[in-house]
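User: Structure please.
Assistant: Input sequence and predicted structure:
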Amino acid sequence: MISFQTWLPQILGYARFLADSAAVHRAWIAGDSSETSVSGFDELYEQIFDDLDSNTFLGDLPSYMPSEDAAQDLIRRFLSQIESMDAARAANGNMATAGDLLRSFEWGRLVEAARALSALDQNRLMACAARSAQLDRQ
Protein backbone atom coordinates (compact mmCIF):
# COMPACT_ATOMS: atom_id res chain seq x y z
CA MET A 1 0.00 0.00 0.00
CA ILE A 2 1.19 3.51 -0.74
CA SER A 3 1.78 6.05 2.00
CA PHE A 4 -0.53 8.91 2.90
CA GLN A 5 2.27 11.25 1.88
CA THR A 6 2.07 9.79 -1.64
CA TRP A 7 -1.72 9.47 -1.72
CA LEU A 8 -2.67 13.04 -0.72
CA PRO A 9 -0.80 14.88 -3.50
CA GLN A 10 -2.34 12.49 -6.03
CA ILE A 11 -5.87 13.24 -4.80
CA LEU A 12 -5.17 16.98 -4.80
CA GLY A 13 -3.80 16.67 -8.34
CA TYR A 14 -6.94 14.91 -9.54
CA ALA A 15 -9.04 17.65 -7.92
CA ARG A 16 -7.03 20.36 -9.70
CA PHE A 17 -7.40 18.49 -13.00
CA LEU A 18 -11.18 18.12 -12.67
CA ALA A 19 -11.53 21.75 -11.58
CA ASP A 20 -9.89 22.82 -14.86
CA SER A 21 -12.64 22.43 -17.45
CA ALA A 22 -10.30 23.21 -20.33
CA ALA A 23 -7.83 20.49 -19.28
CA VAL A 24 -10.64 17.94 -18.92
CA HIS A 25 -12.02 18.90 -22.32
CA ARG A 26 -8.58 18.57 -23.96
CA ALA A 27 -8.02 15.13 -22.42
CA TRP A 28 -11.50 13.62 -22.62
CA ILE A 29 -13.02 15.25 -25.69
CA ALA A 30 -9.99 16.13 -27.85
CA GLY A 31 -8.02 13.03 -26.79
CA ASP A 32 -4.89 14.98 -25.80
CA SER A 33 -2.92 12.75 -23.42
CA SER A 34 0.05 15.12 -23.09
CA GLU A 35 -1.07 16.51 -19.71
CA THR A 36 -2.62 13.52 -17.95
CA SER A 37 -2.96 9.76 -18.06
CA VAL A 38 -6.63 10.14 -17.12
CA SER A 39 -8.21 9.50 -20.51
CA GLY A 40 -11.80 9.39 -19.25
CA PHE A 41 -14.01 8.89 -16.26
CA ASP A 42 -13.45 5.12 -16.06
CA GLU A 43 -9.70 5.69 -15.89
CA LEU A 44 -10.16 8.39 -13.24
CA TYR A 45 -12.24 6.04 -11.11
CA GLU A 46 -9.76 3.19 -11.52
CA GLN A 47 -6.78 5.35 -10.60
CA ILE A 48 -8.45 6.85 -7.53
CA PHE A 49 -10.23 3.86 -6.07
CA ASP A 50 -8.23 0.90 -7.35
CA ASP A 51 -4.66 2.11 -7.84
CA LEU A 52 -4.61 4.55 -4.92
CA ASP A 53 -6.92 2.47 -2.67
CA SER A 54 -8.69 5.66 -1.57
CA ASN A 55 -11.36 3.92 0.49
CA THR A 56 -8.64 2.72 2.87
CA PHE A 57 -7.34 6.26 3.37
CA LEU A 58 -10.83 7.70 3.83
CA GLY A 59 -11.35 5.74 7.01
CA ASP A 60 -8.01 6.88 8.39
CA LEU A 61 -8.21 10.60 7.54
CA PRO A 62 -8.73 11.63 11.20
CA SER A 63 -5.47 9.95 12.20
CA TYR A 64 -3.54 11.40 9.25
CA MET A 65 -5.04 14.90 9.52
CA PRO A 66 -6.22 15.31 13.12
CA SER A 67 -6.46 19.09 13.08
CA GLU A 68 -7.82 19.46 9.54
CA ASP A 69 -11.56 18.75 9.84
CA ALA A 70 -12.50 21.01 6.93
CA ALA A 71 -9.92 19.38 4.66
CA GLN A 72 -11.13 15.92 5.68
CA ASP A 73 -14.69 16.92 4.82
CA LEU A 74 -13.68 18.29 1.42
CA ILE A 75 -11.66 15.18 0.57
CA ARG A 76 -14.61 12.98 1.56
CA ARG A 77 -17.00 15.13 -0.48
CA PHE A 78 -14.75 15.00 -3.53
CA LEU A 79 -14.36 11.22 -3.42
CA SER A 80 -18.05 10.77 -2.65
CA GLN A 81 -18.98 12.84 -5.71
CA ILE A 82 -16.78 10.62 -7.88
CA GLU A 83 -18.59 7.56 -6.54
CA SER A 84 -21.97 9.28 -7.09
CA MET A 85 -20.97 10.11 -10.65
CA ASP A 86 -20.04 6.48 -11.24
CA ALA A 87 -23.41 5.30 -9.88
CA ALA A 88 -25.28 7.87 -11.99
CA ARG A 89 -23.45 6.70 -15.12
CA ALA A 90 -24.36 3.10 -14.38
CA ALA A 91 -28.03 4.01 -13.93
CA ASN A 92 -28.33 6.53 -16.76
CA GLY A 93 -27.72 5.67 -20.40
CA ASN A 94 -27.67 9.40 -21.19
CA MET A 95 -24.06 9.65 -19.99
CA ALA A 96 -22.50 7.27 -22.48
CA THR A 97 -20.05 9.75 -24.00
CA ALA A 98 -17.57 12.10 -22.38
CA GLY A 99 -19.51 15.06 -23.79
CA ASP A 100 -22.76 13.82 -22.23
CA LEU A 101 -21.01 13.25 -18.91
CA LEU A 102 -19.45 16.73 -18.88
CA ARG A 103 -22.84 18.34 -19.49
CA SER A 104 -24.59 16.43 -16.70
CA PHE A 105 -25.86 17.84 -13.41
CA GLU A 106 -23.80 15.23 -11.57
CA TRP A 107 -20.65 16.42 -13.31
CA GLY A 108 -21.33 19.95 -12.13
CA ARG A 109 -21.51 18.72 -8.54
CA LEU A 110 -18.23 16.85 -8.94
CA VAL A 111 -16.52 19.93 -10.38
CA GLU A 112 -17.81 22.02 -7.45
CA ALA A 113 -16.29 19.52 -5.01
CA ALA A 114 -13.02 19.49 -6.98
CA ARG A 115 -12.82 23.29 -6.95
CA ALA A 116 -13.51 23.46 -3.22
CA LEU A 117 -10.76 20.94 -2.50
CA SER A 118 -8.37 22.70 -4.89
CA ALA A 119 -8.96 26.00 -3.07
CA LEU A 120 -7.44 24.69 0.16
CA ASP A 121 -3.93 25.69 1.18
CA GLN A 122 -1.98 22.91 -0.56
CA ASN A 123 1.24 23.67 1.35
CA ARG A 124 -0.51 23.26 4.69
CA LEU A 125 -2.01 19.96 3.59
CA MET A 126 1.35 18.70 2.36
CA ALA A 127 2.92 19.66 5.70
CA CYS A 128 0.20 17.60 7.35
CA ALA A 129 1.10 14.65 5.11
CA ALA A 130 4.77 15.06 5.98
CA ARG A 131 3.95 15.00 9.70
CA SER A 132 1.98 11.80 9.22
CA ALA A 133 4.96 10.25 7.44
CA GLN A 134 7.19 11.13 10.39
CA LEU A 135 4.70 9.47 12.74
CA ASP A 136 4.65 6.36 10.52
CA ARG A 137 8.43 6.05 10.82
CA GLN A 138 8.43 6.27 14.62
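The mean pLDDT is 90.
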